[in-house]
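Technical note accompanying the year-one report. For the benefit of new consortium partners, we illustrate the data format agreed upon in the data management plan: each record pairs a sequence with a structure-token string. No post-processing was applied to the example shown here.
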Amino acid sequence: MDSLDLQVLQQAYDWQQSGRRVWLVTVVETWGSAPRPPGALLALRDDGLVVGSVSGGCVEDDLIERVRTGERVAKPSEIRYGVSKEEAARFGLPCGGTLRLVQEPLLSSEWISELMARTARHELVARRLDLDTGEVTLESAHRGESFTFDGKVMRAIFGPRWRLLMIGAGQLSRALAQMAMTLDFEVICCDPREEFHLTWEVPGTRFATGMPDDVAIEMQLDPHSAVVALTHDPKLDDLVLLEALKSPAFYIGALGSRANTAKRKERLALFDLSEAEINRLHGPIGLDIGSRTPGEIAVSILAEIIAVRNSVELRQKKPIQVTGPACAT
């Protein structure tokens, strides 16, 4: 899931609390080239207002029209679009794609409150819907689980959001923060230096003025967390690395040339870190795209973070000899 699903549920909760009737629509299966994957979620209000998406737009238009013309389902049911090539073309499903949806009335919003609270605590939660009874239950989920539907029971995974902890509030951090938020990361910037944190102005981020190692411990870094050290100051960068490399964080990187990275690893080896833990450090940070400006370097860092998150081989790493401004990364 991504945070859009949580936004959909939050809006559905708000609508129902205000007295409106609400339906949830979930993609449960696709054939061919469908615009949205299984688990994609949409909320539909009784006056036709929608939030979220299950297709490129034409299916949403049809769902809105159904509600506006009086179709109000009272229990979970299935809808299928694109059975024929003509219908697929009508609803904007490319290559003869087919879309299978489950629509359900939102009869109670209590489970949404619980789900929101649990995902805010950085838990993975599964929502289980029984199509025969309409009963919704929440249960703990595990990393690696995905959306499932067997025709009778739908199980969707929610939370937690991906997090990015940045150490240092410089120009590069500003560019990286803005890009990371567009990819749905929760961004936390840490810099205890007053001259830096007083000028931090990136809406939507959280700023921490504590020491980097304390902030990392407080965050309880997990497999949905990435950490990047960007200050070029060993007193700050090494502090967070000592904690991050022992954590389950899926990505840990530090700014610096290949030579500086080697020296950093020598320093880290003086502490209680194993060779395997030290080798988790990504440095020089980022993929080799010839980056020189802060914006370009931010792109290269974020590209590497996404590649690691998606378990993609890092083929485009910087060569052994790096010269010029690009060596800063």
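Partners are asked to follow this layout when depositing records. The chain has a mean pLDDT of 88.
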